[in-house]
Amino acid sequence: MTRIFTSDIRDDCRKDRPDPYPVHILDRVDRPTTAIHDNKIQRVDERDGGFQRAGKGEYGEKLKKEYGRFIGKHPLSGALCTMGGALGHMVDEPMKLKQAGRSPWNTSFWPPMPDTSDDIAPGTDDPKTNAWHIKETAYFLRADIVGICKLPQYAVFSHSKHKGKKVELNHKYAISIVVDQDWRTASAFNGSDWISNSMSFLAYAGSGYIACILADYIRRLGYPARSHHAMNYKVVVPPILLWSGIGEMSRMGDVVINPFLGPRYKAAVVTTDMPLEIDRPIDFGLQDFCSKCGKCAEMCPSQAISYGDKIMHNGYEKWPNDVKKCTSMRVGNPNGSGCGTCIKVCPWNKPFTPFHRTVNWFLRKFPSTRKFGIWCDDLLGYHKPNYKQKWWLDLDQVDGRFVTPKKSGYTKKR
Ligand code: SF4
Ligand code: SF4
């Protein structure tokens, strides 16, 4: 079993760039590989998201009830979500909270904020040097992949899920911080069993932790900055991932796939006015690959993913997905905690071994190899759980007590 952490590949890959993964070998393009009609996009109201709707009871009373317990029904995802929730208070100038007496914690140990109102820290005025340094800092904090783009205004929510407050955000740049959900665990789960939510919240809490520290650091250098993570976003993440060169839009709908991690990650964002050199979008052939594959659509337990062609929706070219079906499965899954079956079965969900790096290169460079690659992926059974690697406890909280569930996930035959 190969277990790959970013730190394992760091020395191997870095020579003249900050990134541990070889993002410099990817083909760069001027615009994302799926059309974005900037002037036709209506800013999104965060309250219209699937989870918010489920919580409000728009998908039925049963799901509304499940929404109250679906994360905490497994103790590990409950613990991870608690940490993510604590970070929700740390997104923007925690020192101001302290001064206003609204901080939820004893903040006497917090280092005072320097007075940078008229000044910036020396050596932080060059965009290229700053971009390199900010990436190095994010990797030091244990990010897996980092990309930078200009912040498009259409990627800012119109209203927040927190009391429907109108969202204003005029920062110039957005830094995407990507954290892997862990390959070993992904190889062992069947997609919709008792570890799925924990994998999500590991990466949500981890990327949120990095984003909160990075934003605070940038503010201490003299520039405005705000972190955005699962407990407190002001931005819609997929367009930011596209423009900052993290990945391409996939058949899964709003899921942006990275060539090295596949869909097996979550992202937080830092927005700022610090001058930064931006990255360009990438093209690794995913539009062609997804049009030939469709494995996620076939294996999705709720059939929320389209088998058909892309459509235009709110100015974005994308494969449509049924948010209600997906949310109902993730919130209401009676045989597991959440669902990540599409993440599990996607052929881009692989470890970063020499073998997979070679296959990855062929799939990116030669469209004619893709059908064969998909066929081999099926044959080798990568979509099946490798239970030898299973390490977690199957637990379900029923009426406030943990019990061992009778079933675990929905494994579809293929
Ligand atoms: S998370 Fe599960 S239900 Fe939602 S699209 Fe993926 S496979 Fe389908
Ligand atoms: S499983 Fe196949 S079709 Fe679905 S996102 Fe992955 S590559 Fe695309």
From TrEMBL:
It holds the Pfam family Fer4_7. Gene3D superfamilies: 3.30.70.20. Residues 280-310 form the 4Fe-4S ferredoxin-type domain. One of its GO terms (cellular component) is cell envelope. Its EC number is 3.8.1.-. PROSITE patterns: 4FE4S_FER_1, 4FE4S_FER_2. It is found in: Cell envelope. GO terms for molecular function: hydrolase activity; iron-sulfur cluster binding; metal ion binding. InterPro entries: 4Fe4S_Fe-S-bd (IPR017896), 4Fe4S_Fe_S_CS (IPR017900), RDH (IPR012832). Keywords: Hydrolase, Iron, Iron-sulfur, Membrane, Metal-binding, Signal. NCBIfam families: RDH. This is Reductive dehalogenase. It comes from Desulfobacula toluolica (strain DSM 7467 / Tol2).
